[in-house]
Design brief:
With 123 residues, the protein is an alpha+beta fold. Helices cover 28% and strands 37% of the residues. A six-stranded mixed beta sheet has the order 2-1-6-5-4-3. Strand 4 and strand 5 form a beta hairpin.
């Protein structure tokens, strides 16, 4: 993906824990929908709240890092452990100004089966 791609810019902002860069990538009305596969999922609205939630993701999985991927034809990020296991997939929806308007995060193990199918340590 190109460096000016919103997913690449989001990755750079998250990796550098750069509040200003993250704010420039997120739309002021950004919305994050979390599908955890249980009642712990939910929705967060607003640039600042979405930013806090995104910065918190890697702390729940300190052995994982983000990588730019395509998610159902959309730009996105995958949160992958060093073992190769994907523990989260983030799909992005863009506003006309190329800021990220909506983000869908799936951490439900059943929905990540496709992402983990080709891991060598899984039979």
């Amino acid at each position: 993906m190109r460096r000016d791609d919103p997913a690449a810019r989001l990755l750079a902002a998250l990796g550098g824990r750069d509040d200003l860069a993250l704010a420039s990538v997120l739309n002021p009305d950004a919305r994050l929908v979390v599908d955890a596969g249980d009642e712990s999922g939910g929705e967060v609205r607003g640039r600042a709240r979405v930013a806090r939630s995104l910065f918190g993701l890697p702390t729940r999985h300190p052995d994982a890092s983000f990588e730019v991927v395509h998610v159902n034809g959309r730009p996105g990020l995958a949160l992958r452990r060093r073992t190769g296991e994907v523990v989260g997939v983030l799909a992005l929806d863009l506003a006309p100004d190329d800021t990220i308007r909506e983000l869908w995060l799936s951490t439900a193990p059943g929905k990540l089966v496709h992402w983990n199918r080709r891991r060598p340590d899984i039979e």
